[in-house]
Amino acid sequence: MQTKENFWGRLCLRLSRLYLQIMTAAALCALLILPAMASANTAGNDMWTVAQNIIVDVYNHIAGISTALAGLMSAVAVIGVKLSGNQHKSDQAWDWLKRIWAAWAIINGIGAFIAYITPQFSGFNTLTP
Questions:
Q1: What does the DSSP assignment read for 71-90?
Q2: By the 8 A CB rule, do 48 and 125 touch?
Q3: Is-contact 79 121, C-beta < 8 A?
Q4: Is the pTM of the predicted complex or chain greater than 0.70?
Q5: Where does 27-76 show beta strands of DSSP type E?
Q6: 98-103: long-range contacts, CB 8 A cutoff, minimum separation 24
Q7: One pLDDT digit (tens) per residue for the chain, 129 residues
Q8: Residue 34 burial (CB count, 10 A)
């Protein structure tokens, strides 16, 4: 049977460890937070222009990586077709090739769609009093 003294003694040890862990986590969060500052290289542009430049840059990287990976995976799928021992494995490789091409078309189609639709909405991103 536990006594009250034993209970409070163990609880105090647990609370002190918990307190230490919470304070350590809070201190780490405070040390790792980066201050939010305005971009130094905006050259006088407004928020919308800077955001558009960032989005275009990120999308160009995504499209470039997806194109390189689609080419690599297409080569692997074609090699899989050529080296397959039976019709079932060959069909699976062709199915993967179709999926790769469809995913690549969707990724690049999103960019084409955004490039087409963005000029249609020019002027709507301003606030007038």
A1: HHHHHHHHHHHHH-SSHHHH
A2: yes
A3: no
A4: no
A5: none
A6: 100/70, 100/73, 100/74, 101/70, 101/74, 103/66, 103/70
A7: 556 667 767 777 788 888 888 999 999 888 887 665 555 666 667 777 778 788 888 888 888 898 999 999 899 888 988 888 888 888 988 998 999 999 999 988 888 887 788 777 776 666 665
A8: 5
Q: Please work out, in degrees rounded to the nearest 5, the angle formed at the alpha carbon of residue 34 by the alpha carbons of 28 and 38.
A: 165
Return the exposure string of 43-61: e unless at least 16 CB atoms fall within 10 Å of the residue's CB, then b: eeeeeeeeeeeeeeeebee
Site of tokens 């499209």: 63
What per-residue string of b and e applies to 73-83 under the rule 16 or more CB within 10 Å gives b?
A: beeebeebbee
